Amino acid sequence: MSVKNYILAIESSCDDTGAAIICENEIISNVVASQKIHELYGGVVPELASRAHQQNIVPVVDQALKQANITKENLKAIAYTRGPGLMGSLLVGGSFAKSFSQSLNIPLIEVNHMQAHILANFIEDANDEKPTFPFLCLTVSGGHTQIVKINDYFDMEILGETIDDAAGEAFDKAGKILNLPYPAGPIIDQKSKIGNPKKFKFAKPRVDGLNFSFSGFKTSVLYFIQKEVKINPNFIEENIDDLCASIQHTIVNILMEKVKKATEETGINQIAIAGGVSANSEIRQRLKEGKTTFGWKTFIPKFAYTTDNAAMIAMVGSLKYDREIFTENTAKSVAKYHI
């Protein structure tokens, strides 16, 4: 009977505390504790996030082990998010992972959070089919918007990225202008389904190459709303669905135009998506349409593997474990950690 290589993964880059168990690329358990307190402040408060991680991490890890029906003695390694992210949050997960691995005398594996988002596409049940190298990945989250060329599991090249706000920030800041609660992205997505995406026009900043910009778009939304509300104080309430649909359509257009440009420049027609904003229904639909319109082969992982989660950290941990890429206990967490 062969010994199974169970790996525990810990994710604590922002405001979700996650723990997962992986074995041979199959996720056995995936537990996430979300922090609702940030909704009161309209965004993540770093100090509150790190305190909540301290409260959640032991119960979350315990639950992951129980759901996997194993004990800590069955673990062969521990993977954790080293960065990028909020430093206080990263320190909680990193300190726990280091202490736990040392007490069990098993290897420690550091993981780049953004690489993990991309490599989530290789989790056993993430997609019906896995991408082959090379492929492009549109990585969209609250803090990052990138087009990345993936040559191999750990050979990635950023072809373009945002020069200011990320797509997730654009959704949330537009939502704040519309007086929507945080996080606004999912609410805008929901309301867009019954709105007219062509009712209102917003600026699409022109940026050279494959880079993105969303600050000009955000400003155009702000000025437009301020002007209309002066004329009609009830403008937002009377047009909320069409506003959400038009805002979302503009953001997605900005993203898709750059993806199309990237495929033309590289000749690569395999497109994957990753990151929390990739859960957006219009992004997913437009990528699916790209199969017919542009001949793309697209890879869209299930929702559970797009938002911040420990399963994606576990996937990288499994790949590194197989290659014996381990980490010293002295490795420091890093708020900015490039692919």
TrEMBL record:
<dbReference type="InterPro" id="IPR043129">
    <property type="entry name" value="ATPase_NBD"/>
</dbReference>
<dbReference type="InterPro" id="IPR022450">
    <property type="entry name" value="TsaD"/>
</dbReference>
<feature type="binding site">
    <location>
        <position position="113"/>
    </location>
    <ligand>
        <name>Fe cation</name>
    </ligand>
</feature>
<dbReference type="GO" id="GO:0061711">
    <property type="term" value="F:tRNA N(6)-L-threonylcarbamoyladenine synthase activity"/>
</dbReference>
<keyword id="KW-0479">Metal-binding</keyword>
<dbReference type="InterPro" id="IPR000905">
    <property type="entry name" value="Gcp-like_dom"/>
</dbReference>
<dbReference type="GO" id="GO:0002949">
    <property type="term" value="P:tRNA threonylcarbamoyladenosine modification"/>
</dbReference>
<comment type="similarity">
    <text>Belongs to the KAE1 / TsaD family.</text>
</comment>
<keyword id="KW-0963">Cytoplasm</keyword>
<feature type="binding site">
    <location>
        <position position="189"/>
    </location>
    <ligand>
        <name>substrate</name>
    </ligand>
</feature>
<protein>
    <recommendedName>
        <fullName>tRNA N6-adenosine threonylcarbamoyltransferase</fullName>
        <ecNumber>2.3.1.234</ecNumber>
    </recommendedName>
</protein>
<feature type="binding site">
    <location>
        <position position="280"/>
    </location>
    <ligand>
        <name>substrate</name>
    </ligand>
</feature>
<keyword id="KW-0808">Transferase</keyword>
<dbReference type="GO" id="GO:0005506">
    <property type="term" value="F:iron ion binding"/>
</dbReference>
<dbReference type="InterPro" id="IPR017860">
    <property type="entry name" value="Peptidase_M22_CS"/>
</dbReference>
<comment type="function">
    <text>Required for the formation of a threonylcarbamoyl group on adenosine at position 37 (t(6)A37) in tRNAs that read codons beginning with adenine. Is involved in the transfer of the threonylcarbamoyl moiety of threonylcarbamoyl-AMP (TC-AMP) to the N6 group of A37, together with TsaE and TsaB. TsaD likely plays a direct catalytic role in this reaction.</text>
</comment>
<keyword id="KW-0012">Acyltransferase</keyword>
<feature type="binding site">
    <location>
        <position position="117"/>
    </location>
    <ligand>
        <name>Fe cation</name>
    </ligand>
</feature>
<keyword id="KW-0819">tRNA processing</keyword>
<dbReference type="GO" id="GO:0005737">
    <property type="term" value="C:cytoplasm"/>
</dbReference>
<dbReference type="Pfam" id="PF00814">
    <property type="entry name" value="TsaD"/>
</dbReference>
<dbReference type="InterPro" id="IPR017861">
    <property type="entry name" value="KAE1/TsaD"/>
</dbReference>
<feature type="domain" description="Gcp-like">
    <location>
        <begin position="26"/>
        <end position="314"/>
    </location>
</feature>
<feature type="binding site">
    <location>
        <begin position="139"/>
        <end position="143"/>
    </location>
    <ligand>
        <name>substrate</name>
    </ligand>
</feature>
<feature type="binding site">
    <location>
        <position position="308"/>
    </location>
    <ligand>
        <name>Fe cation</name>
    </ligand>
</feature>
<feature type="binding site">
    <location>
        <position position="172"/>
    </location>
    <ligand>
        <name>substrate</name>
    </ligand>
</feature>
<feature type="binding site">
    <location>
        <position position="185"/>
    </location>
    <ligand>
        <name>substrate</name>
    </ligand>
</feature>
<keyword id="KW-0408">Iron</keyword>
